[in-house]
Design goal:
By secondary structure, this protein is mainly alpha-helical. The chain is about 75% helix and about 0% strand. It is built from eleven helices and no strands. The longest helix is centred in the last third of the chain and has 41 residues.
Length: about 290
């Protein structure tokens, strides 16, 4: 009987799981479809453009140089805008999206599909990665054309920018997924997350030099990927003369990749389990509410 059902539904036979490559391919296709739908929505498209425009405006209003260098503070603000796109897509937007889709039953339906949760997480990673890369490219291009900031100096710095951006996103996407799964509802997700996230962004040196912060604060933020993502972005778009404002006097790129890589691995191991647990709880509660209402 089970073989007949398997052949008619087209699903893998019981006990057989699709390969990791197939799960990845399914997730990528789903993510590209979601991205096309997103870009066709005027409100969502405007949201993607608003952050780059805001940071370019702030950059034109920023005076002075990075302490100890001749690099304009406006260049630091452009680098901060790129990092903000990563944080906005991977944490704020994803957390809200997951909270909404948990409430409307999308996440519950994905749990009913074999390996649906890992594929769902891959799809969301694709969406936030491409939107963040697009917003970062707009911020960088506008910074060069409007503010007069410099792009990455050579191929090595371009590769640093791309790799740090991608790894930073992969590091924060599972965090956004977990937060979206555990926060009470979509309305409270943004309010609950905004204040601590803004504090972490400010203290991570995204908008001004880390050397201006107390030593204790510098020690705390080193445990989080935001600090290292911001530092990696600065390593790619700022000249070495801006190292005077870095706490270690160097870009510490090995630490950038090591710590963000550790967050990515731990996150993708933890996030599917949390999502499964949340959807299992939802599927267990829903029938009880239905019976009570009837």
């Amino acid at each position: 009987m089970s073989r007949t059902l398997t052949s008619t539904t087209g699903r893998p036979a019981a006990g057989r799981s699709p390969s990791a490559g197939r799960v990845l391919a399914i997730g990528v296709r789903r993510g590209l479809l979601e991205l096309r739908q997103l870009l066709r929505t005027p409100r969502e498209a405007f949201t993607l453009l608003s952050t780059p425009l805001l940071f370019i405006l702030l950059s034109t209003m920023t005076d002075g140089d990075i302490p100890g260098s001749t690099v304009p503070m406006a260049d630091l603000m452009v680098a901060g805008g790129i990092t903000t796109m990563i944080v906005q897509a991977g944490l704020l937007t994803l957390t809200q999206t997951l909270a909404v889709e948990r409430e409307d039953g999308t996440l519950l339906r994905m749990r009913a599909v074999r390996h649906g949760i890992p594929a769902y997480l891959v799809a969301k990673t694709v969406v936030v990665t491409l939107t963040a890369l697009g917003g970062s490219a707009l911020t960088l291009a506008a910074g060069v054309l409007v503010v007069g900031s410099s792009p990455p100096a050579d191929l090595r710095h371009w590769l640093i920018l791309l790799s740090v951006t991608a790894l930073g996103l992969v590091a924060v996407v599972p965090v956004g997924a977990v937060l979206g799964a555990i926060l009470p509802n979509a309305r409270e997700a943004l309010g609950f997350l905004m204040i601590p996230l803004l504090a972490l962004m400010v203290f991570s040196g995204i908008y001004f030099p880390m050397t201006k912060l107390p030593t204790a604060v510098q020690d705390v933020v080193q445990a989080f990927p935001l600090k290292w993502t911001a530092q990696g972005v600065r390593a790619a778009v700022l000249p070495d003369s801006a190292l005077s404002a870095e706490t270690a006097g160097s870009w510490e790129l090995p630490k950038v990749y090591l710590i963000n890589g550790a967050w990515a691995v731990m996150g993708f191991l933890l996030a599917p389990r949390v999502l499964h647990r949340m959807t299992r709880r939802a599927s267990g509660n829903r029938p009880k509410r239905t019976e009570a209402s009837s």
